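Re: weekly structure request thread

Next one in the queue (150 aa):
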Amino acid sequence: MVSSRSLGGFTVSENSTFRLTLHLSHPTIAAAEIIEKFALPTRFSQSVGNQKKTKNGKDLDGIYKLTNVSFCLHDSPLNFEEVSIDHFMKSQLESYDIGYIQSLVETGGGANFLVGVFSNENVMFNLSLETINMLSVAKISVNYDFYGGE
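Done, posted below.
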């Protein structure tokens, strides 16, 4: 049985979860250099100039035009009842070399968090002004992916 609570007229059920990943890209820096700067497990990495490949490692036509690195920030989906997106994101930001991320972005790269939200119910969350300011200073954008439903 799924329990739920009411929040400002919205229902948040215990099966409402989210994932947070960090994505970094750059037109000239190799994935290995970016990975070396972060003590995080890598979901995937692709280096500029390398042969394109499928997830299974089969060669595809063409080469990567950008380096792309995606980092795992936790092992399994996080439950809204147990973990605040705002606090989790803020704790991640506090642990990063912000100067390095700023440099990546200022030299043509990109940085973003991907927040994946799964729920069969209404979900409401916020990012505090402090977290939004930290994201802005670090030059990290936020992408959202909401999925679920019946």
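The beta strands are 4-7, 10-13, 17-26, 42-46, 51-53, 59-63, 67-72, 78-79, 110-118, 141-147. Confidence is low (pLDDT under 50) at residues 1-13.
Next request, please.
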